[in-house]
Amino acid sequence: MTFAVGLGLTLFVASRGLTWGWMTSRTLVLGFSAAVVLVLFCFVENRATLPLIDLSLFRRPGFGRANLLNALANASMFSIFFLGPYLLVDIRGHGPISGGLILGIAPTSTALSAWAAGRMIERFGLLRLTRFGLACQGLGLLLFSRTDADSSLVSLVVVLALVGVGLGSFQVPNMSFVMASISRSQQGVAGGMTQMVRAAGLVGGLAVWNTAFVGFRDRRSTNLNIEDVASPEVFVPTFAEVVGMSGLLALFGLLLTVGVSFDNQATSELRDEK
Predict the structure, then answer these.
(1) Pick from 160, 147, 179: which is nearest to 70 by CA?
(2) What is the DSSP string of 19-84?
(3) How many angstroms from the chain centroid is the CA of residue 25?
(4) CA count, 13 A, side-chain hemisphere, 158
(5) Contact assessment for residue 109 and residue 161, using Cβ atoms and an 8 Å cutoff
């Protein structure tokens, strides 16, 4: 209960803070309340016989960072599914079906690259594939942010495929490390935690990108004195800013891999398990 309330309040404040004002009393009170509830959750979990989330797992080397990267990667990816349909249908003029098929290139590429990454883990190692995935995703999102009505369909397909390849190449080594870093008796916990972090990243990404988009859009609409906030003059540059931010988030995740050794840690854990 405390976790649901704390996380819900955090996401609610993140999605409404720009509209209310970040320093208004309502935002500050709800933000402080969310922090208190989450601290209470950690206090309860540390003393529970059967905790919902075993927080001691985060003391293992690299475990917390791997889950953080999982959240960042999925949060950055969600900008495509949030803003992509508007770009494809409203700005580029694709129909709903063709627009959906074009957008589907990203998840299709994710599935195919995940299959390929699973076969290449032993050859390239977890860390190299993790970095490759985050780099592809970040670069792809930055390129996607430059897409407009005049961009060629071929370039759009390539960029979406690059983003999908990035996420798929990242997810497999990330999951492999998390699963290998704890004992077999806790594999279910690790799998559940990975999915929870992924969902939190998606929901958090939606809250952040929605807040940023609405704020940038309304400000640009006011500055340009354009009442139609869906006009290309307002939407396209705002789209570029928000999707570009999501690309930078993925590249920030890449920076977080500096100084870690997922391969060595996972190998040692597997050796100990045997």
Answers:
(1) 179
(2) HH-TTSHHHHHHHHHHHHHHHHHHHHHHH-SS-SS-GGGGGSTTHHHHHHHHHHHHHHHHHHHHHH
(3) 29
(4) 8
(5) yes
- What are the start and end residues of each CATH 1.20.1250.20 domain in the chain? 57-273
State percent of the chain over pLDDT 90: 45
Write phi, then psi, for 7 (nearest 5 degrees).
Answer: -70, -40
Band the pLDDT of 262: cuts 50, 70, 90: low
Do residues 60 and 247 make contact, with C-beta atoms less than 8 angstroms apart? no
Query: What whole-number distance in Å separates Cα of residue 198 and Cα of residue 210?
Result: 18
The residue-averaged pLDDT of 263-269 equals 49
Q: What is the pLDDT of residue 268?
A: 47
Domain topology for 57-273: Growth Hormone; Chain: A; (1.20.1250)
- Under 8 Å between Cβ of 121 and 263: no
Phi, psi (deg, nearest 5) at residue 229: -70, -15
Structure tokens, 34:
């969310």
**Both tokens of residue 129?**
């594939």
